[in-house]
Design brief:
heterodimer; A: mainly alpha; Rna Polymerase Sigma Factor, Chain: A; Arc Repressor Mutant, subunit A; 2 domains; about 0% strand; B: mainly alpha; about 80% helix
Chain lengths: ~170, ~200
């Protein structure tokens, strides 16, 4: 792959998927600094792996594979890894909400979602993040390398756990 | 709208970390590409530096021996043993050391986990028999080297030198071994356990 093609492809990935990758990072780890570290590491791995992109799967699925695999190895180098609750009020802008009540409600909901996801197993956090990103069971199966049926089973279980946690936080 | 769709909507409202969303995207992309290129370059520089240092060490030992006019066979054999042992261990170490760049991130996660576990186990094995053999080689090398040093009547007894240096190398090796095993238990085993859960789902 020529360097120009690589740069163009990277630009495409970066423009289209950076926000989604950022959200995957937040679904996995919650401390802002660490999220940025993980994001950068994913970008470096995407850049280094671009030569291997043959177009067998969509660029989106390919990008998620690199992101998920990087996340799985991430805590190895994170000596001071700690799970910090999602401080959505600090880091979210919700500029689209003109009504303050709507904004507060959405912030609270996002906080609860973040807290609930943080209660899940590491792999489950990644799977539900992919589902929330709108990936189909088939796409998740391809990314994770398990059968579509098994993804279905796992998602059902994850959703059940997630709703229970959400309920708990809503009642607090 | 069902619960999941609602959560998806909430999730997608999370525009947070994209703190640069108002910045011109293209300019930002190019700066990222530049950073990545310099990262690639940095890695290449580091690897070249390692090869350069090993070459300098090799050359300096050969030059020093010539300069000192040492003609004792034992010293040459001792240094050769130490040198061969160090180079062999370093090559084995570098070959089996875990570098995340050795992994193919474009595979499915289960396949990725399998490969990562295999690399991590290979790295763990460095600090088993190969490390013990390396330490033993150092002890043998240093003792052979001392045999070639002419002993003077006033100096400390050769036996004392043999025991002192052998013990020093053995204790240093033991310390290094224990520190490494402790790090493996603390950092590597939990990671292998996490990855194994994925691997078993394939």
């Amino acid at each position: 792959m020529s360097i120009k093609t690589k740069e163009e492809l990277f630009e495409e990935v970066y423009t289209e998927y950076r926000l989604r990758i950022y959200r995957i990072c937040y679904g996995y780890i919650y401390e802002k600094e660490q999220v940025e570290d993980l994001f950068q590491e994913i970008m470096i791995n995407i850049w280094n792996s671009l030569d291997k992109f043959k177009g067998d799967s969509s660029i989106g699925t390919w990008t998620y594979k690199v992101a998920v695999n990087t996340a799985l190895l991430y805590n190895r180098n994170t000596k001071q890894y700690k799970k910090i609750r999602w401080a959505a009020t600090e880091i979210n802008t919700f500029a689209a909400f003109s009504n303050p009540n709507d904004k507060i409600q959405m912030e609270s909901r996002l906080n609860h979602l973040g807290k609930s996801i943080s209660e899940l197993e590491k792999q489950d956090r990644l799977i539900i993040s992919l589902i929330l990103e709108g990936q189909t069971y088939e796409q998740v199966a391809e990314i994770v390398g398990i059968t579509t049926n098994y993804v279905g089973v796992k998602v059902t279980r994850i959703k059940k756990q997630l709703y229970e946690f959400l309920k708990k936080y809503d009642n607090e | 709208m069902n619960e999941l769709d609602f959560l998806r909507k909430v999730w997608e409202e999370n525009t947070i970390a994209d703190s640069s969303q108002d910045a011109p995207v293209l300019k930002e992309n190019m700066s990222m590409v530049k950073k990545l290129k310099s990262f690639d370059h940095f890695q290449k520089v580091i690897n070249s530096l390692k090869i350069f240092i090993i070459t300098i060490l090799l050359a300096s030992i050969v030059i020093s021996l010539n300069f000192l006019g040492i003609d004792s066979v034992e010293i040459y054999i001792g240094i050769s043993i130490i040198f061969a042992g160090t180079i062999s261990f370093m090559l084995y170490y570098l070959r089996n050391q875990f570098y995340s760049s050795k992994l193919d991130y474009t595979q499915s996660s289960t396949r990725f986990a399998k490969d990562a576990i295999s690399l991590l186990r290979r790295q763990n094995n460095i600090f088993g028999l190969p490390f013990i053999l390396f330490i033993l080689t150092m002890i043998v090398g240093i003792n052979v080297l001392f045999l070639g040093i002419p002993s003077e009547p006033q100096s400390v007894s050769p036996l004392f030198m043999h025991i002192t240096f052998s013990s020093f190398i053995a204790l240093s090796g033991l310390l290094g071994y224990r520190i490494r095993r402790w790090r493996i238990r603390k950092e590597i085993y939990p990671l292998i356990a996490d990855l194994s859960q994925l691997e078993n789902q394939e």
